[in-house]
Predict the 3D structure of the following.
Amino acid sequence: MNKKLVFVLALFISSCGQVETKKVISTDKAPAAIGPYSQAIQVNNTLYLAGQIALEPTTRKIVSGGIKEQTIRVMENLGAVLNEAGFNFEDVVQSQVFIADMDDYKAMNEVYTEYFKNAPPARAAVQTVLFPGALIEIIMIAQKP
């Protein structure tokens, strides 16, 4: 049998045995889930973060102030979950921003960009109805090489 073919078959067979592991990520440095979901799920080198709103982790109350204060709290909550799994904002490859009022888009971006100095992730932003009192919710996916 051709040596190259044997090598390719060996690589294929060895890769077929890889098992994806699913791990629940949870930290008390971010608000506990308020429903049947996890703060994040890690599958191998990819982390899927649940949406975070501007809840203060210990009081579970929405922070006071406007969109900037809420965006800071959301990003800090997401950062805590990222860190719990051994990730950071540089590992984020995609985010989805849900905002209650597109008039707040510019102010939200002023805060958001502080967390992504280099190579910001792919992103979508949409206006929608959110949890009462919440001005913003952000979902992220992060990946390690």
